[in-house]
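Feature request disguised as a bug report, sorry. It would help if multi-protein outputs had a clear separator. Right now it looks like this:
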Amino acid sequence: MLLVRLRQAPGAVPTGPIRLSEVSIMPMPRIHYRVIGQDDYMLMIDVAADGSFVIESGDYTSHAPRKGQLDAEHRSRLEAAIAGLGDSRDHPAPEGAPGFLAELTIGDGPHVQHYRFWEGALTAEPDLRTLVRELEVIDA
């Protein structure tokens, strides 16, 4: 999937062929996903705009970071999941609720979207769940 932005007046609808000069290619935004769980569990996934990624995880032991590059298919699925996200929002855990807490940041600078949620919120938030599941299956 390729995300593009047309250079034209807001609300204008193209009526003919689109010229290359009217298109700007939007790189995939940076993704930072951080999970804190029970028993000192931690997971951090960083995906750069070029599709390179770093995964750090651990519990009471530490593990060497895993690094890699997304293939075109996985990158496309991530871009589609990002495109389907709603507005930034928080879903704090109810008092005493078990499960992990997570922070998800998409983009940098003025176009950043930020989500904070607990595990149970994913059942009610299909757009977040889709992106989180795509991040969880990145394999180095």
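(second protein starts here, but nothing in the output says so)
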Amino acid sequence: MKEREVEARRLTGRKVVKGRTYQYEYYTLPLNLYVPKSMVEKFGTKFYLQVDEESGMIIIRPKTEKDQ
């Protein structure tokens, strides 16, 4: 199992619907993994990413202040 520390990137998207432009923001991790905005607000932008290559399972854990 591989483990590494990653940081969520904040991206801003735009969508045009019936002539109106809407903007939204979302957060992603490497490997194009989406992180809900509520998780980033609660735990911050630093996470641990664990990848189990045998089973193909990906585990995302927030990095807490105790881990630092």
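Even a blank line would do. Unrelated, but nice: Strands lie at 2-7, 9-17, 20-29, 33-35, 46-52, 57-62.
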